[in-house]
Design a protein that fits this description.
611 residues, mainly alpha, 0% strand
Amino acid sequence: MSEEIKPDVQITSDVEEPKNEIQEIVEPVVNYAEKTLNELSGLFEKLMEDVDRIKKSKEAEAIKSAFYKKLSKEKVEAGLASAVEPEAEDVAEEQVETAEQTEVQEPEKVNPFEAIESGFKSLYNKYRKERAEYTRQLEAERADNLAKKQAVIDDLKTLVEKQEDVSAAFPEFREIQTRWRAVGPVPAQNYRVINDTYQFYVEQFYDKVQINRDMRDLDFKKNLEAKQQFCEMAEKLAENENVIEAFKELQKLHEQWKEFGPVAKEYRDQIWDRFKAATAVINKKYQGFFEGQKEQQAENLEAKTKLCEQVEAIADKEDIKSSNDWNALSKEIEEVQKVWRTIGYASRKENQKIYDRFRAACDKFYEKKRVFYSDFKDSMNDNMDKKLSLIEQAEALKSSTDWKKATDQFIALQKEWKEIGAVPRKKSEQLWKRFRAACDEFFAERDKQAKPENQFYANLKAKKAIIEEINAFVSDDAQLIKDAMASFTERWKAIGFVPFKEKDSIAQAFKEAMQAKFPEFGARPARAQRNNGGQRGASRAPLSEKDKLVQKYNTLQQQIDTYENNIGFFAASKNSQPLIQQMQERIEEAKGELKALEAQIRQLEESQEQE
């Protein structure tokens, strides 16, 4: 009259037990590291307005982590915190957990981040409390569901142990099944035990209770229809391009599948194979997705490792001496950081490590740069003090009428000025103009005091005017060119002497100007040169050894005077330090030769007196 009915085969290999946590809503990946503090705070405010915010804890934690990392970085750059600080997440947790505690009194500092940090902290505290309350309620609800399901099992067990007629037992069994399905999820650690216990007693019911065949077939039919729908849904999920979403929905289908009883024996393997085939497709795509992710993450890790090595090499440089070098390297770091932001994530295990390594290398470079500019600023301030001292000396000296001594002192001050390093850019031009004004005032006054009867400086001015005329002369007329050359030459010769220190330079300037405009200027017939040279040689009497030494001594003395005059001239010129140093070296060398010549002359004189 009746046959033994067995429940469906248990689905265990492809079903994950429900986790005792809030089901997360997966959002598109956003690179929060590129967001500003205001943008991150705005994103969190928007999240708090979302009705599903409790299910978006990963998004919330990602925003929080990015916010405190960005906040920590900007505090370091603003000088409000040390470059070496705890991890941003640790800082965030510590700040959030201590938000309502009494704060330790510290010296007051201007903190431009206080308002946004306080606002974000308040939002996050509110979110944590909501999520904690929701989790507490969820755990209480699942604990209550566990008690309800246990009560259903107890009723099912009682039903199984009864020996009643089918018409009385089966409706009660249906009511028990409905109650079981109506109960929500239970704690994850109790899921398998409670579910297996229920399935066990369902099997016991079918084994022990003599069910009317028509009712049994009706039950099988309903279960088959439900499971066919599950197969169709699973097959449709297999076509979903969103692999993660499809996999999660599949887990829900497996849970629902287990809620329904068996189907007719001839359909059991067929319906299960169909459902398992759709499951296998989704599982394979899911596995392939993560395998592809692993490969991409490995490539990302390799690329980021190379960027770390590149920044570390820059940060380890020891020969960075100038601000230009620091600026150039800073641009290199910025370009590397741009490339870094274009690379995706590494694996969860390695992503934070490689980021920490990259951040540490960048921090090391910027800390060294900060130290350099701190020392450089101190050095420039020291240089500014030195130059101010020279300016005060020059301004005190500019009224001196001891021309020779004051000139030497100004030359020494100018030399010392050149040896002092850089000063702050805002002060550099101001200091130089002040120092130059004192120097120019002295040298201008010194030049005015030249003896009026010599008219040397007037002659110098006249000769400079002629040179300007020569440089401005332009003509294509050969005769006019010849006449102009003769005129310039005669006018030049008619002008008297110039200051001795200007003689060579002004003569050279005239010669260069004339040769540039008149290529024939200065050319003489070779025969005339030879004849003149022969006449000079014939009329010159031979000199004694002593006369030669005296002549050489006088020549050297004249050279020394020329060099010293030239130093006075160059001292008032810009960028003249190399020439001044060269002339000082020549003076010292010539003075040494003078002493040697003086000794030789005395020796000759003593030998002549003895004779």
